[in-house]
Design goal:
The complex is a heterodimer of chains A (307) and B (438). Chain A is α/β, with parallel strands linked by helices and 307 residues long. Helices cover 32% and strands 29% of the residues of chain A. The chains are: A alpha/beta (307), B mainly alpha (438).
Chain lengths: 307, 438
Amino acid sequence: MTSSIARVTGLRFEYPGVRALHDVSFELERGTVTALVGPNGAGKSTLLRSMAGLDTPLAGEIFINGVDVLDSPREAHRHLGYLSDFFGVYESLTVEQCLRHAWSIHGGDEREWKARVTRTASMLGLEDRLAVVAGTLSRGLRQRLAIGQSIIHSPRLLLLDEPAAGLDPEARHALATLFRTLQSEGMTLVVSSHILAELDEYSTHMLVLRGGRMVEQRALRAAGDLDARRLRVKLAIPDARLAALLEEAGAVAIEAEGEDGATFDWTGAAPEQSVLLRNLVEAGLAVSAFDEVRQNLHDSYLETVTR
Amino acid sequence: MNPELRRNLWLELTTHRLLAMPAVLLLVFGVIAGNTGSGWAGHVQSTALGFLMLLVVFWGSRQASESVAEEVRERTWDWQRLSSLTPWQMAWGKLWGATAFSWYGGLFCIAAMLATAGSLAASRQVGWTLLAVIGAGLALQGAALAASLQAARKDSKLGLRMGTLFFLPLLVIAAVAFMRFDSQHFQGFTWFGATRDTRAFVGLSAAAFAFWGMLAAHREMSRELKVGRLPWAFPAFVAFLAVYISGFGDFQSGGMRSAFTFAGLIVSLTLTYYAIFAEHTTAMRLRRLVVHARAGRWRRALEELPLWATALATAIVFAIAAAAFPHSFDSSVPGKWIGGYPLAAVLFAVRDLGILVFFALGLRARRVEAATLLYLVLLWYVVPIFLNGVGLEAIGKFFLPVGMGGWAATGVGAAHAAIAWAAVAWRWRKANRALDVI
């Protein structure tokens, strides 16, 4: 099995008189969360709909988990989930019926429906609302139900178009937590949103579209390691031992700033971080600053589009 | 159980509905039986037949049509399209599920008809009647679902309305056939030179059309679910209708060949125009067709062919055959008069398709079918009538070449088609320049 869950090659899509996607090509690594960003009309929704097999491009190839979406869309749908920005739920069915139907139409084993519905509902905090009619749910709960319908068959790839639109801050936080959980379970996510601060909470990669062209695709942090942080240490008195001490403590990707400072990646938890600081001080280094440096998604995006 | 069927059953068969339907029907049948004296059985049977048609043919067709339209409105259709169900599973799940309540009521009507039939011979007649109604119901439900799927892809509802207009003659024919069921017109009629029992013929015809209705629903569902299909079904339907209709032809003077040829030509041209308005013709689809053809991906190119293209292809074949073997049904009319008229008719259809494609390739293409309809009305009716009205009959014939001879009409048709497709070529190049491609 390759490390790529999705491969898009030369994707070209046209609307009358407009080319919405210009030969877009990229691959998505398994277990990543990619923030799909770009201005309005950049082609984000078109890209997601093409990847989901809902719209047919003029040219190009799309493979999801090794399945050609254009040749075998029904087979590809077993491997992916998709949530549109304008989604609907079956207003007259109960939450349990909606989830059971979703499990069945994705080819799920009928003997397992109860267990899967219970598991999915509990993951989304809907376990006490299984008998509630979907039409009576709040916007946030409907969003959760719609996501539940998209993930109940455990797709390898989940495509989400503006999933947080219209949600209150609490519901957005719950959504971010859910995405982290899904990623930790091995799912690959592509999330399109205008709210970059929100994407920043869980994205490992960024894919920038502008005018239908792919401007950049790059990693924001290590895949599968949302706790990785970039730290910076500054010394009041230069000391040549700094880099060696950091390396010895487990820091990686060390970039020295002369002998009076360095930035480095740190994967340890907060207590280990405080131990590192204590060790540096006890080693006689005149530490004047020790903090986290992080270029957030917003900065990365602006840097890319203004380049 | 088919998941889509089950979902529909959850919605359609509520406890209240399950109890109310038989209660209402039994009440109606009881009132009829109690107020019609000794002939009550016949009256109950007629009433049950009426309710069966109402429930299965009319309400069932509406429900089948609504099954997709409602999902589009509720924004659940895209999500359904992401399922792993095959087109056939989705199509029959919708057809039987959305119409489940209609069929549930229909079962009580069928039971009432059989219970009041009396003798074995009468039961057999009721059996043919039931086959006809059930077949007509399935045919129209399948056609309604197919039309609804076509309409779901359009930005205007004109196509749906035009599509419905094309189905109206079928409904009228069906209604007339049923009205004659219990009358003296039961002696039978001639089809392919032999006398047929009317009731059996209508029943079997309805069953055959039910097959085509189901196939139409399956094919359109395949297109909606992006499952490619080679374009054999529309020409096959044309061939079936040509054979079916030619069976009513005059075998004494014209022979089967002429009847088949002309029936095929008329059917294929009618279906070409039906497809213009029922189907959504888009620049994207036409460009995909060309891109695949240029790359030698012939299967994909064929899968992208619009329905009107396949209907037109069969019309061309039938037109050549009709010109080669002229019509001679009526011995008082010289057979050769037809000349090139079949070819002229096809060439005018080619022109009209050119107008459709011209509008579809527009940079801001909207309401393509409505714009096409407007120009067809102008070219077929308004301009010729205006020219004739101001005494320019000679010029009027260049718009409606009637009475100038078949081959001259063919020349006029060829000129019209050439102008229309030259305009298409110009617009194609313009669109390419706008996209900076090819």
